[in-house]
Task: structure prediction
Amino acid sequence: MLERLSQISSHTKAAPAPSFDHPLDPLSGAEIRAAAAIVKAALPEKTLAFNVISLADPPKAEFLAWAASPETVAKPAREVDIVALEAGVNGVLEGLVDLTAGKLIKIKHLDGVQPILTVHDLAKVELAIRKDPKVIEQCIISGLTAEDMERVYCDPWTIGYDERWGTERRLQQAIMYYRSDIDDSQYSHPLDFCPIFDTETAEVIAIDIPPVRRPVSKRKHANFHAAAVEALGGYRTNIKPIYVEQPEGVSFKITGREIEWQNFKFHVGFNYREGIVLNNITYNDHGEVRPLFYRISLSEMVVPYGCPDHPHHRKHAFDLGEYGGGYMTNSLALGCDCKGVIHYMDAEFPDRKGESIFIKNAICIHEEDDGVLFKHSDFRDNYATSVLARGVKLIVSQIFTAANYEYMVYWVFHMDGTIQLEIKLTGILNTFVMNEDEDLHGFATQVYPGVSAQNHQHLFCLRVNPMVDGLANSIQMVDAVPSSEPVGSPANKYGNAFMPKATVFKTAGEAITDYNGATSRSWDMINPNRKHPYSGKPSSYKLVSREVPSLLPKPGSLVSNRAAFARHAVHVTPYVDRQFYPAGTYVPQTSGVPSRGLPEWIGDGTGAIENTDVVLWHTFGITHFPAPEDFPIMPAEPMSLLLRPRNFFVQNPALDVPPSHLMTTSQVIKAGGADAVKVDSLTDKVSRLAFGESAEKCCK
Ligand code: ABN
Ligand code: CU
Result:
C-alpha cells in the first residue's frame, strides 16, 4: 500500500528548519525532534513509535555541485529518513521528511518487513522473561529456583528467520543466562532453552527447548573483575606508565566535522546503522586537490555460528542491519579508549517518541606514532649514510557493543596516502552450557568447565564509492601470475618470469569475485583516464585485504540466502544514490528468499561498471574457533585492510616528512667517517636510554 502524503503535509504548518552546517552532518537533536514533529503532525490519527530518524544523504550530484561552489550553489535540501512503527499494525511506515521545507514528502506502509532492533527494544526482554511463568518453569528444570529469577538474564537477539512466524510478528530470541551474583559474568552460566519474545506485545510467545537438556553449571564463575583477578594472584605490578605527549597539540584541523590532516581532507559522518561514515576524501597533492573517495563505510556484517544444533543454527546476527553500529555505540573515555590528545564528536539518535538521545564522545579523533615511515642505510660506510623518517597516523574511531562482543572500528590515515580500516574484536564469547564429558563434535570448544563456545565467523562488508581523480572509475582485479611462456622458451628461458595480471571488470556480473591468497589477489579502483607519467598505468587506489575467509555456511543455507554479500569477497555495482545496505534495508527476519540487497541490484549482471561511477563492496573478516584464552574476556584481536595509492602519486608522497635522521655520504666523510658519526634524532628530544646514566638523570 503506497500513500503519497504531499496533500497531508501541505496543511501542516511548517516550523522553521533547524540550521545545519554541512549537508553531510548527522542530524542534530533539534533536527531529530523537528522531523518527528513533522511526521506526527502529518499523521495525527496514528500512534507512532520511531525506529529511525536519520539523515538521508543528499543526492551525490547535488552535494558535489554545492561542495565545488558553496558560495554560489544552494545547499541540497535537508532530507530525513523515517522508519516508524504504528501500534497494532504489522510492518513499518517508511517516510522521507524535507526539513528545509518542513514537510513530510513521502510515506508508505511496508508490509512483511521488520525494522532494526533498538537498544530500547533489547532492554525490555529481560524484564518480561523474568516474570513469565513458563520461563520460570524452565529455569527450575535447569536447576534454579523461582527465587533466582532476578538473577536470570538474557541477551536478546534477532531471531534470524523462523518459519513459524516469518515476518508476522516482531521477534527476539532470548539467549538465556544466570548470574550467581549481580557481578557474575553471565557467560559462565548459560541456560539451555530459548524464549521467543514479541517485541511489540512484550510477551513470551514460545520457548524452544533442546532435545538434550543441560542443567545450569553450578561452578564458580570466571570473571574479569578485581576480586576474580585477586583470586588468581592479583594484578601485575611490573608495568611502568607510558604517557603520550603532544606538547604543541595536534596536527589536524577541524572545521565542523571536516578534518584536514597531512594533505587529506574529509568529512566525518555518523549514523545509526553504519556508525562512522567518511565522505568526500581528497588529497592535496602539491596544490592539486585530488578526489579519492566519495564515501567509505562499514555497510553490513554477519556473524554466522557453525554448530548445527539448537539454538546455534538461528544465531547469525547482522549487527549493523539488525541492531545498528551507531545505535550500539559507546560513549568513549579519555585515556581509556584512546590515549593522547583527543578530539571527540558526539552523536544524537531518536527515541521511540521522537525525542533525541545524546551520546557524548561517540567518535574519537587522535594521532599516534606510526613507527618507521621509511628508512635506508648504506652498507658501504657501515650504515652511517642513512635516512629515517618516522610517521604519524590519524585515527578516527568508535566502539560499539553488540551484546556480548565489542567491535572497535579504526579508520586510520597514514602519511603515505594509505587509508586503513582496522577492526579489533574484544568483549565476551557467546557461550552455551555443556554437560559433563559432552562430545562437542568439533563445532565448539570447552573454554571453561561446563561452558562451550561455538565456532563462528565475523564477516564485515566494506562499502567504498571511489572517486579516484574523478567520478569515472573502473575496478580491476590483479593476480600475480607466472609467465605463460614455458621454462626454456626464449621469453622465459630460466622459468622465473612472473607479472601482475589485471582484469578490468566490464559488468557487475563479471565483478563477483573471490579472494585468492595464492595469487596475492587485490582489487584496484582505477581512473582509466589518468595515466602515471612514469609507469603509464592508471591512477589508482588498491584494496589490499588478506583476511578474507569464505562464507562457511553452505550455499542454500539460511545464512547464505540472507547474507548474499558474504558469498563473495567483491561485488561491484553502478553507483545509485542512497543504495547503502547490501543485505537490504530491513534485515531482521528476512528469509533470504529472495536475497535482498546486492543480488537485487546486480540482477542479471549486465550493469555496466567500466569507466563510470561505481561502488565496490568487499566482504572480509575472520573465522573464530574459540579457545580458553578468549575467556572470560577476549584480548582484542585485530584485522585490517588497506586502501593504498598505486600509480597515483609521482613518487613517494611522504618524501617531504622531515626525517628523524638524515646523513649523506659526504656528511659522513666530513664528520670524520663512519666511526665518528653520532646518530641522534633531529626531531625527538624526549626519547632516552632505558638504563644507565641518562635514565637515572631523568627519573631521580
Ligand atoms: N551479537 C548479537 C547481538 C547484537 C546486539 C544485541 C544482541 C545481540
Ligand atoms: Cu568471535
Observations:
- Residues 1-13 have pLDDT under 50 and may be disordered.
- The domain at 5-110 is CATH 3.10.450.40 (Nuclear Transport Factor 2; Chain: A,).
- Residues 29-42 form the longest helix (14 residues).
